[in-house]
Amino acid sequence: MSRMNYHHLYYFWRVANTGNLTQVANEIHLSQSAISAQLKQFQQHLGIELLTRKGRSLILTPEGKQVLAYADDIFSKGEELESLINKGLPTQHRHVSIGVLSNLSRNFVESFTLPLINDKFATFSLQTDSLENLLDGLSSFKFDIILTNHNVELGQQNAIWHSELVSRQAIEIIGPTKPQRTRKFPNSYGDATWVLPSQNSEIRSSFSIACAKFQYTPKIKAETNDMAMLRLLARDSGAFSIMPEVVVRDEIANGLLHIQQSLPDAYEHFYAVTLSKKRVSPHVQQLIEQTKS
């Protein structure tokens, strides 16, 4: 068999990942007919059918899925190399680009980066954003790793992301005064007011489950999707709140806030996410292992 045409492989890779010929044509500024013709030549050259049409979409054949796996490796490595060259860093230094979910605990992020802070040969950058934008940045090699409290592996059709659990922290009921006796949820909070995370968070879901289990209806003073703001509200409102201890570590140490009790069977999970098909660099893997230990 003659040498493979990598231009054809690239067009196949783009179309296979989108399933939309029109979109790819617009993105790479070629006509649909030109791309279609080159895909046909590529399949004829290989002697196998890679794509079939279903309605307006192109669907991968079993053979096409195998070819795509190799194409993912080839072009992902190329983009990774280009990103590395563009950084232009001296080889003795290590730089880690970290994406952080916008509402993640800043204290947890600081704990995660502490080994980098203490490493004189390491530098790092932090950027907060939505989960969708962070995953896009990870796939385009803008980030080496992203930190989130969502397991993005769940529901994947293809193994694009790898979520590694780096910390599981108990969700605590936090209050402004030191408890004088052992508290028990929900009996000890009959007249309490609450400042809570927003409805779409893992912490709030755990709280809602506990409330439903004990048929407890909390009096909610405020809600927020920003953990930094929740920390301030817990400190200044006089209300009870729920969060991992790490979020208000400094306030607890200074006696401004106090742990009342752990919310029964409730945890927040922190994940480090990398690309499943990209080899994780040794210093990034070491960073993950240090956080887990």
What layout of secondary structure does this protein have?
Elements: H1 6-18, H2 21-28, H3 32-46, E1 51-54, E2 57-60, H4 62-87, E3 94-101, H5 106-117, E4 122-129, H6 131-139, E5 145-148, E6 161-175, E7 193-197, H7 202-213, E8 219-224, H8 227-236, E9 240-244, H9 249-253, E10 258-275, H10 282-292
How far the N terminus sits from the C terminus, by CA atoms, comes to: 51 Å
Just name the CATH architecture of the largest domain: 3-Layer(aba) Sandwich
Provide the structure class: alpha/beta
Radius of gyration from the alpha-carbon trace, in angstroms: 25 Å
Q: Any idea what the shape is? A: elongated
Helices, by number, come to 10
Q: State mean pLDDT (0 to 100 scale).
A: 87
Please provide the ordered H/E string of secondary-structure elements. HHHEEHEHEHEEEHEHEHEH
CATH fold title of the largest domain: D-Maltodextrin-Binding Protein, domain 2
CATH class of the largest domain: Alpha Beta
Number of domains: 3
Q: Identify the strand order in the major beta sheet.
A: 4-3-5-10-6-9-7-8
CATH homologous superfamily placement of the largest domain: Periplasmic binding protein-like II
Number of strands: 10
Helix content: 40-55%
- Beta content comes to 25-35%
How would you describe this structure to a colleague?
- There is one protein chain.
- It contains ten helices and ten strands.
- The protein is an alpha/beta fold and 293 residues long.
- It has three domains: 6-86, Arc Repressor Mutant, subunit A, CATH 1.10.10.10; 92-167 and 271-292, Periplasmic binding protein-like II (D-Maltodextrin-Binding Protein, domain 2), CATH 3.40.190; 169-268, Periplasmic binding protein-like II (D-Maltodextrin-Binding Protein, domain 2, 3-Layer(aba) Sandwich).
- InterPro entries: LysR_HTH_N, LysR_subst-bd, WH-like_DNA-bd_sf, WH_DNA-bd_sf.
